[in-house]
Amino acid sequence: MDCRRVALLAVMTALCVGIQITPRPPNVEATSFISFLIGFLFGASIGAILGALTMFINGFLSPWGLAGIIMPFQMAGMALIGFAGGVYRKVLGENPQEAANPKKVLKLEVSFLAAFLILVYDILTNIGWALPSETPIIAALIQGVWYSVIHVVSNAVFFGGAFFILVRIISNLLGENPWRSQKEA
Fold first, then answer.
1. Rounded to whole angstroms, how far apart are CA atoms 83 and 36?
2. Opening angle at CA 156, ends 119 and 90, nearest 5
């Protein structure tokens, strides 16, 4: 990795952690968006590490208090989202012309992917809360439904509205073609 990529990764990591520990409305967050973006730009493993590390730090510094036993579930869920970013880039690598100038269909695709990934994350974390508290899993999922709706909708909007714009901006900053395969990078 060259110096520009390392510097950008460091800035994005700090941004991700900073946003995550800043007081904000519950379940309106940018960590999943940034983890997915980093996975897309730097590879699935880097995205997964960023997501897991951010949630680990958040587990101790969150304005909502210590994460406790739920932290491994948060780390696994966010690692999955970062990993999915790298996989999504490989999938889009098949059709770089369409991805270079995304149409509404591609923006909807990334919004639906975000909604699915956030739903998986919320299910994981609700199960992570239910098990040690001896709450039935179905009851935990029902209790968390409004938070999940906020989480899914806000991230679907973030992803659909800003993902391809940021990919293009960051790739221009790095002087790279975002649609080049990661093997060439």
1. 7
2. 85
